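Justification of resources, computational component.

The compute hours requested in this renewal are based largely on the per-chain cost of generating structure records like the one below. Each record pairs the submitted sequence with a full structure-token output. That output is archived, and it is also reused by downstream analysis tasks.
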Amino acid sequence: MALQLENLKESNEFLNILFDNITSALFIVDQSAKIENVNDSFSILFQKREDQIVGELCGNALGCVFAIEEEKDCGTTSFCSKCKLRKDILKTMSEKVPTYRNKLSRDFYTSQTKDSKHFLYSTKFIQFHGKKYTLIIVDDHTELEKQKRRLEEQNETLKSLNEQKSKFLGIAAHDLRNPIGAINSFSEILLDSGNEFPDNEKEELLTLIKDSSQFSLQLLNELLDISNIERGKLRLDKNQENISQIVMDVIKINKVFARKKNINIINTVKLKDSTVSLDKSKIEQVLHNLLSNAIKYSTPHTTITVEIKDHSTNFEISVKDQGVGIPESELSKLFTEFGTTSAKTTANESSTGLGLAIAKKIVNGHGGEIMAKSKLNEGSEFLFTLPK
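The structure output for this chain reads:
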């Protein structure tokens, strides 16, 4: 008899050793969903000692976000009626029906810190000395789930980049076909029978070749710009610069193009001290784009007004025209790649549909914002800010 008792004690010790060395978190609950026993893996996973767990209701012991934040017992929270784990435990207890590797994703409190956890759990009915219990086996898949989500996000990024690449190639092929075709055709005409043309017609053909090549070069440059920016390669070489002087220099250049359409550019910039940290060439690019667009979409004999306002935290640069305007419903398209609106240039000027998207990324890169206000047939105003 003594030998049998000794063997029983040893077997119980062995079973306890097995119980505590299983890597899955194990816990046993009674019919009232109170925890009767846990293994070491459970204590490690939920960061609680055994004496803090045994006798506690399941959700409270696990640190369920609803039990903790609502300060209620497991079974009485607003979520308990929807809790899949609770339903499976009760079903296993009442119907002796096991569950296998069901998913559970929820926030739990461990050591006063709220974390999102992802588990796979199984339940098994146990009857011992006439009492009913449910054994719950939990495997932590949080890290695997995080890796899965990271891979999904990376796949989405790659998918987006691939779609963008295809879009760029499609736009490049479509928009470059006509100007390059024109360059090829006009060049052949001049080479084959250039001597037969009077000087004024030769000049016209050469002008068309020049305009077509300039548009092609602009499109290629902007495609490279937007592609580099999208890949995180917007490099800003910031220095302390006088924004008023930069604006005045850009206006001087654009007045030449405005003069061809009898458009007057008014410079209202009168600030004495307007020094700010910026990338001069990139902000010049933004200003050239805004003024170029204002000229393209303005009718002859109208006015474009450029203004700088000195606010407490930033400088606000405004370019306002009296052009064709843009319907309010289409303003959201302005700063997107290849975003087009129903507005038409007034002298059939070309547009790549990329300039404003690039301008937005440059301004945002400086910590500023860019926006547009417009009314159909009343003109548009484009504004951007530069933080001091």
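The longest strand covers residues 113-128. The mean pLDDT is 84.
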